[in-house]
Specification:
alpha/beta; 8-stranded parallel sheet; 6-stranded antiparallel sheet; about 25% helix; elongated; binds alpha-D-galactopyranose
């Protein structure tokens, strides 16, 4: 069934924006298979905005740009399916897409039928140019119905950026995933802002309707369409990927997988992290502790006096997995290494229970044996440490 687990795949937007064509999509399909991404679970290949001509045809139908897609979309879908992958496309609930192409407002049922005919398995449905007086919830409901009316199993990936608190109603109108924030950019500040804004909403995310914190920028190193700010370090990408895994949010790669740095490929294909994302119980992480510090605000322009603001710098999270397994995760947002402490009583496991956690480091594989009462980790600056844990009598 569609979206029993967070969907995984690749999307053209983050790196390629408007510069998409058939050759690129076919090459990506090949690489998804040859480099092991499909095998690891990344099954959707999604073409984002900018695939159509600027005008509909005389029957009111969307037309793939023949310069970009000379053999039409059915041919692309067939190739993608032939590789054992699923095919995704993009439209928008407003009167134009974000990049100014025709979109599905008042064309919901005919466009959905067209997508089904081409063999589309996933539709990302954006929110630009949405008429001021139109009813947002009703329009997303309408496209959800239009996709169902096709009789084809199409994953409905709603993308209204969290407007009208999408986590409170997207499940009810049939969406399988819903974007809950504005766009991600390929920098640390952007993705940490997204994660912290969604942490308390993740309890409303689960099988068949997942909170989508936007596409991964892991491995982009500021190449592409969403490059603003300081290039991420490998440690920062480890933070992003593992937070997306712990949160059970869709894993949609945005980097060019034809030119992926080996360390980043290894990260995206890490079977332990993917297993955490795909765990059958789909529970969000709980926050065991965070440490906040007052720091001078350096980012505000024209500040007339020194302003201090509070930033959360250390996060300790715990996630329940199925079959009596857990993950403890430490996130250090300081530039320098920090010692981080997890008191097991904070996770419901006091010393007097007679139980401890048998721990294994997820990145190194090292077996740390059984720890009772607490665990201390040294975490490098802008990096993270994650441990699988099992209860053991001690
Ligand atoms: C919006 C979406 C992005 C991307 C662009 C395409 O900004 O949030 O993910 O689809 O539109 O124009």
């Amino acid at each position: 069934m569609t979206a029993a687990r967070p969907p995984m795949g690749w999307n053209s937007w983050n790196t390629f924006g408007e510069k998409i064509d058939e050759e690129l999509i076919l090459q990506i399909a090949d690489r998804m298979v040859d480099e092991g991404y499909r095998e690891a679970g990344y099954q959707y290949l999604i073409i984002d905005d900018c695939w159509a001509l600027k005008e509909r045809d005389e029957h009111g139908l969307l037309v793939p740009d023949p310069k970009k897609f000379p053999h039409g979309m059915k041919a692309v879908a067939d190739y993608v399916h032939g590789k054992g992958l699923k095919f995704g496309m993009y439209s928008c609930a407003g009167v134009m897409t974000c990049a100014g192409y025709p979109s599905s407002y008042d064309h919901e049922f005919s466009d959905a039928a067209q997508f089904a005919e081409w063999g589309v398995d996933y539709l990302k449905y954006d929110f630009c140019h949405f008429p001021e007086n139109a009813d947002c919830q009703n329009r997303y409901h309408r496209m959800s119905m239009a996709l169902k009316a096709t009789g084809r199993d199409i994953l409905f990936a709603a993308c209204n950026w969290g407007k009208e608190e999408s986590w409170t109603w997207m499940r009810s109108i049939g969406a399988h995933t819903y974007r809950s924030t504005g766009d991600i950019f390929d920098n640390f500040r952007s993705f940490m802002g997204i994660f912290t804004s969604q942490l308390e909403h993740l309890c409303q995310s689960g099988p068949y309707c997942f909170n989508d914190m936007d596409m991964l920028t892991v491995g982009m190193y500021n190449r592409g369409n969403v490059a603003i700010g300081k290039t991420c370090t490998d440690g920062e990408y480890r933070i992003q990927f593992s937070l997306w895994c712990l949160s059970g949010t869709p894993l949609i790669i945005g980097a060019d997988i034809r030119e992926m740095k080996p360390e980043m490929k290894e990260l995206l294909l890490n079977t332990d992290l993917i297993r955490i994302n795909q765990d059958e119980e789909c529970r969000p992480p709980c926050l065991l502790g965070k440490r906040s510090v007052a720091v001078p605000e350096t980012d505000r322009e024209n500040a007339v006096e020194p302003i201090r603001m509070v930033k959360d710098k250390l996060y300790t999270l715990l996630k329940h997995l199925s079959h009596q397994e857990f993950v403890i995760a430490f996130y250090n947002l300081f530039e320098e290494e920090q010692e981080m402490n997890c008191i097991f009583a904070d996770a419901g496991l006091p010393y007097e229970s007679g139980y401890g956690f048998h721990m294994r480091d997820i990145f190194t594989g090292e077996d740390l044996g059984v720890k009772r009462d607490y665990f201390l980790a040294r975490v490098p600056g802008h990096d993270c440490k994650l441990y699988f844990c099992r209860l053991e009598k001690c």
